[in-house]
Design brief:
By secondary structure, the protein is an alpha/beta fold. Helix content is 38%, strand content 17%. Strands 3-2-1-4-5-7-6 form a 7-stranded mixed sheet, with helices on both faces. It is globular, with a radius of gyration of 18 Å.
Length: 282
């Protein structure tokens, strides 16, 4: 794997304008995390690694903290972790922040957390298989893993047209849910749920709409004006901080396909992420 020369996460430690797609992704994920807390009475959670989702790093577990869970976040990059800690302090939410380099051995005892999880981070790791086994080891109830869906249109557009330089920097075999399930099953996990999340009416290109148009060579002053400027600002942090209380309502009007009573397999051709939820033996 190549190393990414420009760490995109740095921008979002201070610029919280994530784009509509990421904000939507966060709200849909939050709804699923709410269901897990309610159904399994979760009180402690580990997110490792915290880096995976686009946009602002380290806030995937904010909803869990809001629900009263004791949250632990692990990152292997000290500068990023310090930035994430500052964001959580701004939110006035408690969490434990651990700087740890070796994801093949997490610094926790067996069965330390009700939930151990990660979102879209496996392909950044040199040994994702070992991390999955560690998530199982440190959990006493659930393991939840999600990765980008390589079957949907936006993924293919990104890979072959607009962001080809990205894919040599990651280990793409870890987008295959079969490989993830095989690893978790061998570690003693029993699967209790799987499916898709994040199924809005637009493709997943992991970049702002204006940038997509630019890379596709589409020039239009009207479109540029529509997708840039103060009128096109999408900021999950503003919602968490109470500055934009109507943000969720504005964004979730697009969730009709996520909420449609269809088999998840049919949604796979458009869903941005696939996930699996497992129960730990014993």
């Amino acid at each position: 794997m190549k190393t990414m020369t420009e760490p995109v996460w740095k921008k979002y430690l201070t610029d919280w304008n994530e784009g509509l797609g990421v904000v939507y992704e966060r709200f849909v994920l939050n709804d699923y995390l709410d269901k897990l807390v309610d159904a399994h009475r979760l009180t402690s959670v580990l997110e490792a690694p915290l880096y995976g989702m686009a946009g602002v790093s380290g806030i995937n577990s904010v909803r869990l903290a809001e629900r009263g869970c004791a949250v632990t976040l692990v990152d292997n990059h000290a500068e990023r972790l310090a930035g994430v800690k500052a964001i959580w302090q701004r939110l006035n939410l408690p969490a434990t922040f651990i700087h740890h380099e070796d994801f093949t051995r997490l610094p926790f005892d067996d069965h330390s957390f009700d939930l151990a999880w990660e979102w879209a981070g496996l392909w950044y790791l040199p040994n994702a298989e070992a991390l999955l086994k560690e998530l199982v080891r440190v959990s006493r109830k659930l393991v939840f893993v999600a990765m980008p869906n390589n079957l949907q249109v936006g993924y293919l557009l990104r890979k072959y047209v607009i962001d080809r330089d990205f894919f040599p920097t990651v280990d793409e075999k870890w987008v295959h849910m079969g490989r993830i399930k095989q690893t978790l099953r061998a570690a003693g996990v029993t699967f209790i749920d799987e499916g898709v999340l994040d199924v809005p009416p637009w493709p997943d290109t992991v970049m702002p709409a204006a940038e997509v148009l630019k890379r596709l060579g589409i020039k239009s002053k009207k479109l540029d004006a529509q997708f840039t400027g103060a009128g096109w600002t999408w900021n999950t942090m503003a919602y968490y901080l109470g500055e934009q209380p109507d943000l969720r309502e504005r964004v979730m009007k697009y969730a009709w396909l996520d909420h449609a009573p269809l088999p998840w397999q049919l949604k796979t051709i458009w869903a941005h992420h696939r996930y699996v939820l497992g129960q730990v033996a014993g």
